[in-house]
Design brief:
The chain is about 50% helix and about 10% strand. It is mostly helical. The protein folds into 3 domains: about 1-65, Terminase, small subunit, N-terminal DNA-binding domain, HTH motif (Arc Repressor Mutant, subunit A, Orthogonal Bundle), CATH 1.10.10; about 70-140, no CATH class; about 150-180, no CATH class. The chain has a two-stranded antiparallel ribbon.
Length: about 180
């Protein structure tokens, strides 16, 4: 592996942005399109894939944070059942009574006193607690991306036909073939 390829890998590991990493490793490359194409070739290189995989494993050991741990935390947020924070009478449980999995999905609990008047027996009405939960939709999106459920880009290789040029219908049929 060349020194530039190693620098590319190290930069790539920062944010997994291959185009940016290529432009850092090869500063003479100014165009994003060129960097994108060349970085795709580098990422496909077996030596680079091995090096990146080794570095990721080293980082997991060093930080003691694994992909499984991150996915488990995202799953807590994504699959939280809001009923777990309430008791049988519909009141909010004390924080000590909430299980660890559910508590891990709560950002904050804030006590708010709003005077809404008095009830029939002259008790004050309006003491509330606001609970802010972590973003369930974002957690599901991140899990889905990890599992490969979503495709951000569809690559279409426009095949030349001998008799006529590609029509938009031909391109869409090729895109459909890629999805299947």
């Amino acid at each position: 592996m060349t020194e530039a390829q190693k620098r590319f890998c190290d930069e790539y590991l920062i944010d997994l942005n291959a185009t940016r990493a290529y432009k850092v490793a090869y500063p003479n490359c100014k165009k994003d399109e060129t960097a994108r194409a060349n970085s795709s070739r580098l990422i496909a290189n077996a030596n680079i894939q091995t090096y990146v995989a080794e570095k990721i494993k080293e980082r997991e050991k060093r930080t003691e944070i694994t992909q499984d741990m991150v996915l488990n935390e995202l799953a807590k947020i994504a699959f939280l059942d809001i009923r777990k924070i309430y008791n049988e009478t519909g009141g909010l449980k004390n924080i000590q009574d909430i299980d660890d999995s559910t508590a891990g999905a709560i950002t904050s609990i804030e006590s708010v006193e709003e005077f809404d008047g008095y009830g029939e027996d002259r008790e004050q009405i309006g003491y509330n607690k606001k609970i802010k939960m972590l973003d369930k939709t974002k957690a599901l999106e991140l899990i889905g991306r990890h599992l490969g459920m979503f495709k951000d880009k569809v690559e279409v290789d426009v095949k030349e036909k001998q008799e006529k040029k590609n029509t938009i219908t031909d391109i869409f049929s090729q895109m459909k073939e890629v999805d299947e």
